[in-house]
Amino acid sequence: MVVRNRRFGRARDGHAPATRWWADGNPVGTAWLNGLSITFPQGETLFIDAVKAFRDGVSPKLAEEIRDFVKQEVNHTREHLAFNRAVEDAGYDLTRVQARLDTLIGQVREAPPIVWLGVTVALEHFTALFAHEFLAQPDRYISGDNEQAELWRWHSVEEIEHKAVAYDTWLHATRDWSAWKRWSLRSALMLRVTRNFMHSANADALDLMAQDGITGLRAKGRLAWYLLGRPGMLRRLLPAWAAFFLPGFHPWHRDDSALIRGYDAPRTGPDQAAALMLAM
């Protein structure tokens, strides 16, 4: 794991440039991704707290991975706070989106810490799947060379890189449980997280689209086409989402580390880049 401490789109006042439809000029894709970004600062704070709550007694390797996970998530939180300020600067009212998020995070925080960790495992699976799509099919989602698009690529690489940390912490935290108990709780939490996440994410996107004058059945149809038709993010990630329910599942059963190497290679010297390409 590499902590890539980068900053994106800063103006002198600390705000990123206020580009309204930054996702290739697509208001639907922009709304969907903006809605996701708004959830990240509070969500990633929850992830950090959940993993840290169960780090006692982990292996030295996992302890090091948890430290890097925390550093990466802190950087992601900082950058998405700046990104979200730019969304507001572009003219969007985030009041209702933020209220829905506060309710969801509050419900999780009321549960025992082991539930925080299970929710984190489920959401980290989602973010890893989204990250895979962004990096494997960039022209479908965020092909531009603006700072907002680059932030998502950077975030995606690190989500893939640390995608197993919460899951390995879960295995440690539940090491005295039966396989059935561990599987049944994580599966139940994934189903509940999926329902709540999709309901909230769709509501957030429709809220932001309405602020661009896209409302009613037209808005719902365009959002459904974006998610299920073209580019069809949800349709495309469904098989990998379902793999979570297999007994013996582990995030690295899907080895997409080549996407990380592909991102890092242009940022290295020629000799390092050649070595990375050979490794792929």
TrEMBL record:
Pfam families: Metal_hydrol. InterPro entries: UCP07580. This is FF domain-containing protein.
